[in-house]
Design goal:
198 residues; alpha/beta; three-stranded mixed sheet; 8 strands; 22% strand; globular
Length: 198
């Protein structure tokens, strides 16, 4: 009797179609994220000309930190977000000092918490390697989005990648670093990264 296999087949087709659609959406999002990280990484490389050391894609247990800058302007931990703009409605990012809204909606995973966690991780790494505890500024970059200006007292910088680069000189930490400090912190970061690949 062909009925049981036929019924089973008819039940499984919608499930298989749903799984394929979900898998394709995840692949598209990952590809978009990698593309955004590359865009930001290439732009950040320009900061080497002003004495900054740049590190990309630092893998930690269960997560990664997209980019780190160590330079005369301070230490920055950067999270990049590459998301599609809506076909209709607001295409802007607003940060009120605590919460980000994208096109009027709050994202499922809180990107501000992610940015702060990345900064804490880098501060902890540098503290363990040097005994110093430098201020690490959390940065959240929305690739190719319009981002409303941040509140003055915000502890997280939220911008798009182009504006971050243009305004980098004005973003410097109050505790700017001298060249020997930059070199010492960079050497410790490089030592940490070498240890991770052994």
């Amino acid at each position: 009797m062909p009925w049981p296999p036929t019924i089973l087949f008819l039940i499984s087709v919608p499930f298989a179609a749903w799984r394929i659609r979900t898998g394709l959406a995840e692949l598209r999002q990952r590809g978009q994220g990698v593309h955004g990280e590359r865009i930001v990484g290439q732009l950040l490389e320009n900061l080497r000309s002003v004495g900054c050391k740049i590190y990309h894609d630092i893998a930690e247990d269960g997560y990664n930190i997209d980019h780190v800058i160590i330079g005369p302007h301070g230490v920055f931990a950067i999270e990049t977000k590459t998301i599609s703009k809506p076909l209709r409605g607001q295409a802007e990012v607003v940060f009120d000092g605590e919460t980000v809204t994208i096109g009027g909606y709050q994202p499922d995973r809180d990107p501000v918490i992610q940015a702060r966690a990345a900064a804490r991780s880098i501060r902890k790494i540098l503290h363990e390697m040097t005994g110093q505890e430098p201020n690490v500024i959390p940065v959240l970059l929305y690739v190719n989005w319009f981002v409303e200006p941040n509140p003055r007292d915000a502890d997280v910088i939220v911008m798009n990648q182009e504006y971050f680069l243009k305004s980098f000189d004005r973003l410097q930490d109050r505790n700017t670093l001298q060249t020997p400090q930059v070199e010492a912190l960079a050497a410790r970061m490089e030592s940490y990264l070498r240890e991770k690949v052994k």
